[in-house]
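Give me the fold.
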Amino acid sequence: MKILKEMTIGEVVRNYPDSVEVLFSFGMGCVGCPSAQAETIEEACMVHGINVEELVKALNNSVK
């Protein structure tokens, strides 16, 4: 796996621009907001009620 739940959303978006589409599809529309720069994928999933394992799997599938 390239993307881990401990990574920040900002880090993921910077390193894997195609991940934005996946994040949007899971209901995370705030990928550009200031808190996304420091918030981990796991933290964002808790806030948005998203299954973190499913999101991480989808993100990694998108960057293969």
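Helices lie at 9-15, 19-25, 41-48, 52-62.
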